[in-house]
Sequence to fold (238 residues):
Amino acid sequence: MIRKFNDLQQLNTEAAQLFVQASQHAIAQRGRFAVALTGGTSPEGLYRLLASSPYREQVQWEQVDIFWGDERWVPLDDERSNARMAHETLLSHVPVPQSQIFPMWADGVSPEEFAQQYEQTLRDHLNADGCFDLILLGMGADGHTASWFPHTKVLHEHNKWVAAYYLDAQDMYRITLTIPLVNRANQIAVIAYGNNKADALYEVLKGARNSEQYPAQLIDLSGDRVTWLVDEAAAARV
Fold:
């Protein structure tokens, strides 16, 4: 489903309502809400909105488990850290217990070792099928989502839940949830805005199949689990 909005404020408001509703449904069903946050600049407005009234009071934060969809392999105090941004804009403003926040970083281990540890953490907290209640994603102007970058080996990972790999273009390691795990989520919300996303969004949703070049095509759009939240600029071609 594609939802188009006139401006970013409307988009963020809809995304906040979606987050609240997903949390309330999951907690009513099984007493917990497992969500994977996204990074980059796309969700900052959403996170600030969730940290404010009335949304802050509508989520039972004590019953929320916070994970990430992907991360740069940098310490938590690094300005490039997705977890740092989420803490500054959202998590330090809501009463979610620290023990229920699981950033993609640990000191003293390799990225590959950490990916294995993070997968075990997910297996301990998710149901046996590994279904998140909600995964938030963004999309880059190159058509990547999570850390599924064009022409990288992680696009062909079918067994692991979490993968670590060195991204030559950025000269750093990335940690990411894998395609099979993301596609098992009960609900996925993809946020994309700005005219620099218009060409990629068209290719991902309407273009010829070329997931090596546009990895966001690997999001399983069957059923009604995936919602694309886009502004008019990003949706100019769709």
Q: What stands out?
A: The mean pLDDT is 97.
